[in-house]
Amino acid sequence: MKTRPIRTTLLAVAMVGTVPGTAHAVRIDYTIEAGVERDDNVTLAAQDQVEETIARAGFGFALEEETSVLHASVVGRADHRRYGDAYGSMTDRMLEGRLAWHAVPERLTLVAEDSYGVETIDRTAPGSPDNRQQVNVFAIGPDLHFGLGPAQRGIAEFRYINSNAEVTDQFNSDRLLASVAMVRALDPTRELSWNVRAQEVDFDDDFVARDHRRYEAFVGYAHRLRRFDMQVDAGWAHLDYDDGQTRSEPLLRAEFGWAGSERSRVSLALANQFSDAAAAALDRIGEGGGIPGSVGTGTSTINPYAYRERSAALRYEFTGVRLSASLGGFVQRLDYVDQAGANEEGRGIAAGLRYRLRPDLVFSTAASVSRIEFGAPEIRTETDRLYTIGLDKAWNRHWHSSLTVSHYQRDSSLAGVDEFDQNVVYLNLSYRNR
Questions:
Q1: For residues 243 and 265, what is the distance between their CA atoms, to the nearest angstrom?
Q2: 193: nearest Cα among 169, 221, 214
Q3: Signed CA dihedral, 247, 250, 251, 257: sign only
Q4: Cβ atoms 176, 199 nearer than 8 A
Q5: How far apart are CA 283 and CA 269, in angstroms?
Q6: Which residue of 84, 184, 245, 252 sits 20 to 30 Å from the alpha carbon of 326, by its own alpha carbon?
Q7: How far is CA 406 from CA 147, 239, 296, 401, in A?
Q8: Vertex 365, ends 364 and 370: CA angle to 5°?
Q9: Which fold does the domain 4-432 belong to in CATH?
Q10: CA-to-CA separations, 109 to 98, 105, 137, 154, 264, in angstroms, rounded
Q11: For the chain, which residues make up each domain, given as ranges?
Q12: Cβ distance 235 to 227 under 8 Å?
């Protein structure tokens, strides 16, 4: 296994501990757990399914720091599984976070971002243990802040970005990103900005992947009220390849949020933009909060190809004293600029519920269905369904035990590929420091 991805993620964590005078303000929540899992289809196969009892151990943490000098938000987890004859022992790892060190307050900030996790090697195949790889995208660089008047300010950002995949070498790249924004405060709740951004992408494997530059010019508008917030970027995007090919498209990124009450929120996200797997990984940093419950296998196609993304996602969340619930859906189309990348069109819906039966006992359930249509060179439709139920028992402030039952099913339209399902039962004992 390659060590390059691990070294870059450790750099982001190490920086948190090297900033003088901030260690005392760091808050770290963590969970240590051990358990046993019964899986009736470890290989995710349609025939000759392998059933195993798996010993598991895990460690997860969430780190938060916010002072006048340092802002850091990092989450991570490692899950170790001891399989039987099928795979032996394997450890999956993830780390995601952002660190901003204000070296010169209101003038110079050093920023580091990292997205490190597990993705499939073959996106169209099941995410069995032999079809998983560690993928890392790391970015570091300065933000320069400068004043332009009483109601205006400027921000110049520079980043070095490295992307690395354990198996898919074509994904590996080095990138340079530069952006300049002029921001004007219209009033205490509204901002208008003018932005230009340029990124140069240099792939390690120039035979498969094409080096290129990506340019964006857009106007941004932000409005933040107590119950409503919005952020809209609108402009133009341009791709310029070294072999002479170019492509331009309108650019739109929009997010809307409305809190109907103190306990509920509806959010809507829209996008029409150029992106790729590495850029999307950095964009997802900060989407989840708290200690990760497990190291999940991502749903991105890990390849070097740029694509045009058109997507919409709607989500509702309710957080009550005893009941918490969520419901969300998405539609997405990825049109790859390179013919070697198979276009994708997907849609899905997910729901979750958590209910406190007693002060020491919590019931939870979740369900999700997604349908992805893959284009040439291999046209197929994959439908995934996942259902889970669980109970969490608190023995005292620190010690908990959990029982989780899940059912996973995949259907494929490709001739000769049969559907399969998987049932997993997991019982664990965990220690939580808070």
A1: 47
A2: 221
A3: negative
A4: yes
A5: 13
A6: 252
A7: 54, 43, 14, 17
A8: 150
A9: Porin (2.40.160)
A10: 12, 8, 20, 13, 34
A11: 4-432
A12: no
Closest CA to 367 of 399, 389, 395: 389
Tens-level pLDDT at each residue, the chain (434 residues):
344 444 445 444 444 444 444 445 789 999 999 999 999 999 999 888 999 999 999 999 999 999 989 999 999 999 999 998 778 899 999 999 999 999 999 899 999 999 999 999 988 888 889 999 999 999 999 999 998 888 899 999 999 999 999 999 999 999 999 999 999 999 999 999 999 999 999 999 888 889 999 999 999 999 999 999 999 999 999 999 999 899 999 999 999 999 999 999 999 999 999 999 999 999 999 887 799 999 999 989 999 999 999 999 999 999 999 999 999 999 999 999 986 667 899 999 999 999 999 999 999 999 999 999 988 767 889 999 999 999 999 999 999 999 999 999 999 887 767 789 999 999 999 999 98
Q: For residue 150, how many other CB atoms are within 10 A of its CB?
A: 7
Q: What backbone torsions phi and psi does residue 14 show, to the nearest 5 degrees?
A: -65, -35
Maximum CA extent, the chain:
71
In the beta sheet, which residues pair with residue 136? Answer: 116, 164
Q: CA-to-CA distance for 220 and 148, rounded, in angstroms?
A: 17
pTM, whole model, 2 decimals? 0.90
DSSP 233-262: EEEEEEEEETTS-EEEEEEEEEEEEE-SSS
Q: What are the structure tokens assigned to 98, written together?
A: 């952002």
Phi and psi based region of residue 290 (left: phi greater than 0; alpha: psi -120 to 50; beta: remaining): left
- The full DSSP string for 122-172 is STTS---GGGEEEEEEEEEEEEEEEEEETTEEEEEEEEEEEEEESS-GGG-
Residue 280 contacts residue 306 (beta carbons within 8 Å) = no
d(CA 342, CA 207): 18
373 close to 345: Cβ distance less than 8 angstroms: yes
